[in-house]
């Protein structure tokens, strides 16, 4: 069971978040200020934090810095108001893994939380198994059934992004930025389309790697995954 810490001083919103995320695989712990959040984090059980920026005893950005400066890698999703764009920028610069602006859809919240938990699972596992595929990102070994598949470095980056975020559409802009980290501005946008096609063909994964026209790409998951 994974522990999710919700640091939100609006008690009604906090209660709604707890209800929205409640399931048998998650332990949801609400905190309403920095002091109680620090005490909970000190227990060492927290694996994901939903963090409001404006709290009664200080800024959530201060706690974000403490979390990211610690020895344990804990993903943090910021909860922000629409008029705090600078806070979002500062939060991302300080290591926040994602952010959600208020008001937000509970479906979007669940999807974002699920994405972060999947990333944790990918980092923890030696390999990821999806149906007939096995992807070992630690050793960069990729298999379809028992057949090894050779992937370029660019294809490996694309595959990891799709698998870590499976079930979520990733925009072309985000993929360009994350794959060509040495300067996406100088990469022909057609390069992404070519890389997606090559990866799809090499893995014979047309039923998994889907194009969402006008938006981006997604690794499709089964309803029960």
Order of helices and strands: EHEHEEEHEHEHEEEEHEHHEE
Mean pLDDT: 87
Distance between the ends: 17 Å
Number of distinct beta strands: 14
Write out the CATH superfamily name of the largest domain.
Response regulator
CATH architecture of the largest domain: 3-Layer(aba) Sandwich
Shape: globular
How would you sum up the major sheet?
5 strands, parallel
Strand order of the largest sheet: 2-1-3-6-7
Low-confidence stretches at least 5 residues in length (pLDDT < 50)?
A: none
What is the CATH C level class of the largest domain, in words? Answer: Alpha Beta
**Domain unit count:** 2
- Roughly what fraction of the amino acids lie in strands? 25-35%
Describe what this molecule looks like in 3D:
The protein is an alpha/beta fold. It is 40% helix and 25% strand. The chain contains 8 helices and 14 strands. It has helices at 11-21, 34-41, 60-68, 85-93, 106-124, 153-164, 172-179, 190-203; strands spanning 2-7, 26-31, 46-52, 54-55, 58-59, 76-81, 98-102, 128-130, 133-136, 141-144, 147-148, 170-171, 209-212, 216-219. The protein has a 5-stranded parallel beta sheet, with helices on both faces. Strands 8-9-10-11 form a 4-stranded antiparallel beta sheet, with no helix packed on it. The protein has a 3-stranded antiparallel beta sheet with strand order 12-14-13. α6 crosses α8. The radius of gyration is 19 Å and the shape is globular.
